[in-house]
Amino acid sequence: MAARVALADWLETARGLEPASIDLVYADPPFNTGRAQRGEGALVYADAWLSVDAWIDWLRDRLAATLPALKPTGSILLHVDWRTSHHARLLLDELLGAVHFVNHLVWAYGLGGSSPRRFARKHDDILFYAVDPDRYFFEPPMVAATSNRMRGELKKATDVLDIPAINNMAAERTGYPTQKPLALLELLVGACCPAGGTVLDPVCGSGTTLVAAARLGRSAIGCDLNPDAVAIARERLDGVCAGASGWV
To answer: Could you tell me the domains of the chain?
Structure first.
């Protein structure tokens, strides 16, 4: 198992990857919310483009540079929200082809505010595409059954992932905005990357994907432009990979 995280832009990192070396790309890019994302106190990063088209152009360049690094059995999970999920799916259709689409996953997290003007927004979208729709790796994740008939048993997960967001008292909380729960990333990595494979998170934030990969015996590569994010990710990986020869 090897893990490394660098202070670098996604595009720079992608261009330096070996062809056909990555089993899974999980990317949780800025959502183009139009506002600054703040952690516990300080400004962390600005999440705004001049337009949706500008955001798509930014994402297209990075996805196009990353795709050659995927193995023939590899896949990509692109984590977006209601603002851009439809644009992002068309972009992936453009780059890979619609036949490479596998799933539109819904992460239902429950937390967040409500509105008197619309249904409360309580989910994100994760677009699952495969390099080769006939031979990509997939191991169906098992989750606890909820029906009375199957009480106490496990069942295959559906395309709706009911996993709580990180609350203010959670032990895994780092204070970094947009941090995703470890349970979500462990489910996705375990399902879409084979044991001993390599996971790339090119906008790794607080490093949850990298930690999930390391805990599951996968190698991990991450990068982010934010020094605070890289510092947090490195600290978290120190706790998982201490003593591992491949940890950088």
So the answer is: 2-247 (3.40.50.150)
